[in-house]
Amino acid sequence: MRCKKCHEKAVIGLPRHNAAFCKPCFNEFVHDQVARAIKSERMFDPKDRILVAVSGGKDSLALWDILLKLGYRADALYVDLGIAGYSEKSCEKVERFADTVGKAHNASLLIHTVQEEEGAGIRELADLLHRPTCSACGTIKRYQFNRAAVEHDYDVMATGHNLDDEAARLLGNVLHWQDEYLDKQSPSLPASVEGFAKKVKPLYRLAEREIAAYAVLNRIDYIVEECPMAKGSKMLLYKEVLNRLETESPGTKQAFYWGFLEKQAKTQPAPASMAEKDQATLHPCATCGQPTTAEICSYCKMMARAKASTPH
Amino acid sequence: MKVQLSHPERQVDVKGPKRVRELLRDLNLIPEAHLVIRGDDLVTEDEMLKDDDVVEVRPVISGGSGSSGSFGLFRLFG
Questions:
Q1: With DSSP H G I counted as helix, E B as strand and the rest as coil, what are the percentages for chain A, rounded to 5?
Q2: Which pLDDT does position A312 carry in this prediction?
Q3: pLDDT at A131 over 70
Q4: Rg of the Cα atoms in chain B
Q5: Which of A118, A182, A215, B11 has a CA that sits 20 to 30 A from residue A259's CA?
Q6: Taken in order A264, A265, A267, A271, is the CA torsion positive or negative?
Q7: Does some domain include residue A10?
Q8: Buried b vs exposed e over B2-39: b needs ≥16 C-beta within 10 Å?
């Protein structure tokens, strides 16, 4: 297989683009896809301060790497969830990356520890609440990242969600007709109310395999093993189904998710009216001040329930 | 050839020579969800692997929710 651009030996084939690339041309392709995502979705510009949510996995570390190499001012936040045997390893990967690539670009790493802040790790919290661990984890991470971005005055918060993540989430939402979530599936969500950070997903144009390849080719040392809590999750099943379709019919994932975004852009209200809708429904949580539609946000409710059910 | 696999971590012996595409098919693995690594390099699906090669077949899929959350990403605020 030869590189489509320079005809050197290719290191990766991309059936969905009917292309193959050598390492330098693949890096250029990846950087170009991210730059296109940032520009077309008006995610941020070079003067903005970006907070990248990092987990030690390939997506978030690749995102941090790409943003720094594209010349953006990007710091990172790692939330230590206290998953025995896993959080230590993933934190180490993040710290090592911060000490090498991050430091070389004058970027900083912030670390929040759930155990220190809430007195229990994610597994204990999920057990106390009788909730699936992935669901409790999602609530904690979203809360922590949003709060850190707002408190530290970042202009925007960036996550490593890729094309596979978004296509799988869309499939889940459509299969269950959870259409109330569809308007939040945009790769760029504005800071519609006070206390709400702008959120962007600069990797939405790249497949998970492409990001993993970028990490391997650029010697990004990431945690390969799966989170022990994720076993059997629906997201993994949806991703597998979509990848079977993709293998048989290259381009299926992008046709599904990008097609959805195009349709949504035609039918969805303008961002200004979305912001007005948010402003009408969201107000500060009575406990922590973060935006919520209820009196108390789900993070505070979750922690209050966990504290109430802790054996004395 | 020696083939290193993950989830769970194990090593299997596979008779070479064999193309990457055929190796994945024989192992019943989806090409879109895996990378094949020889030494420090990625190898494309048409590459021929020799009987004395050592390769890693690395899954690329991650995440329960950590990366995506339950389907409503911003349910927290609802």
A1: 55, 10, 35
A2: 57
A3: yes
A4: 16
A5: A215
A6: positive
A7: no
A8: ebebeeeeeeeebebebbbeebbeeeeebbbbbbbbbe
The pLDDT confidence band at residue A269, using thresholds 50, 70 and 90, is: low
Task: Render A32-51 in DSSP notation, one character per residue.
Answer: HHHHHHHHHTT---TTSEEE
Residue A37's nearest CA partner among A254, A305, A249, A293 is A254
Question: Å from A105 to nearest chain B CA?
Answer: 25
Whether residue B1 has pLDDT greater than 90: yes
Of A55, A57, A33, A58, which Cα lies nearest the Cα of A204? A33
Helix and strand totals (H; E) in chain A: 13, 10
Mean pLDDT, rounded, for A147-154 = 94
Closest CB from A189, A229, A297 relative to B76 = A297
Residue A68 belongs to a domain: yes
Task: Judge whether A31 lies within some domain.
Answer: yes
Complex ipTM: 0.87
Q: What is the pLDDT of residue A271?
A: 62
Q: How far apart are CA A139 and CA A302, in angstroms?
A: 9
Does A175 map to a domain?
A: yes
Q: Which domain holds residue B41?
A: 2-77
> Domain containing A184 — which CATH number?
3.40.50.620
At B59, which CATH number? Answer: 3.10.20.30
| Of residues B35, B43, B63, nearest to A209 (C-beta) | B35
Residues 159-178 of A with CB under 8 A from B: 159-161, 164-165, 168-169, 172-173, 176, 178
**B76: confidence class by pLDDT, cuts 50, 70, 90:** very low
Cα-atom radius of gyration of chain A, to the nearest Å?
A: 20
Q: What is the rounded average pLDDT of the residues A207-218?
A: 97
- Residue appearing with tokens 């492409």: A210
List the domain range (segments joined by +) for residue A197. 22-261
Q: How far apart are CA B22 and CA B18, in angstroms?
A: 6
Of the candidates B12, B35, B16, the one whose C-alpha atom is nearest the C-alpha of residue B24 is: B35
| Overall number of domains in chain A | 1
Q: How many domains does chain B have?
A: 1
